Amino acid sequence: MELDFKKGGGLIPAVIQDADTKAVLMLGYMNEEAYKLSKESGKVTFYSRTRDKIWTKGETSGNFLDIVSVQEDCDADTLLIKVHPRGPVCHTGHDTCFGTENPDFTHFLEKLERVIQGRKINPVSGSYTAKLFEKGSKKIAQKVGEEAAEVIIEAVDDNRERLQEEIGDLLYHLLVLMTDKDISLQDINLLLSNRHR
């Protein structure tokens, strides 16, 4: 279906939603050029009605909206764009343009996985994660073993607070190892889902 830009005088509203938390982050408008640039770049680009120009969300703040999916409504005159936000969405510093929080506790491991994958592809100077990738698979696997042993120790000692910290360390290092070996959380989700059946 072709989008109907004529109905809104050359503009269509775009509802921006966090792909993970499902929170509605903001509403913007796109003309055909902004829509095309969004699709090409993978970053949400709008048409500013007040400034009368194209702008990519995050071009000054760095808080880009990375596109996960674009869906048109039944009349092809409104878009639902699911994104991974790279920081607060509103220019006021709020998570959303509606003044609400966008807590992402349920999908934090997926976000962490993306950060770790990013450190592997584009190492950042001084990053602990990047240093682990530099040292190679053997060192990463060794760190997983060390963290697993610390989890066991804290579980046996029945120290709940320390156990939580060590589980966090283990999960982080496990994600680094998985990324190093090109295994994703989605791969493991699928494996466990198939086992559950």
Explain what the structure shows:
The protein contains six helices and six strands, in the order E-E-H-E-E-E-E-H-H-H-H-H. The longest helix is centred in the last third of the chain and has 21 residues, at 137-157. With 197 residues, the protein is of the alpha+beta class. The model has no long low-confidence stretch (mean pLDDT 93). It is elongated, with a radius of gyration of 21 Å. The protein folds into two domains: 12-85, Phosphoribosyl-AMP cyclohydrolase (Ubiquitin-like (UB roll), Roll), CATH 3.10.20; 108-196, Helix Hairpins (Orthogonal Bundle). It starts with 11 loop residues before the first strand and ends with a helix. The strands form two sheets. A four-stranded mixed sheet has the order 2-1-6-5, covered by helices on one side.
Order of helices and strands: EEHEEEEHHHHH
Main sheet?
Answer: 4 strands, mixed
Strand order of the largest sheet: 2-1-6-5
CATH class descriptor of the largest domain: Mainly Alpha
Low-confidence region ranges: none
Structural class: alpha+beta
DSSP summary: helix tally: 6
Which strand-content bin applies to the residues?
Answer: 15-25%
Give the CATH architecture of the largest domain.
Answer: Orthogonal Bundle
How many domains make up the coordinates? 2
The CATH topology assignment of the largest domain is Helix Hairpins
User: Could you tell me the number of beta strands?
Assistant: 6
Mind telling me the C-alpha Rg? 21 Å
Shape estimate: elongated
| Helical content band | 40-55%
- Give the CA-CA distance, first to last residue: 37 Å
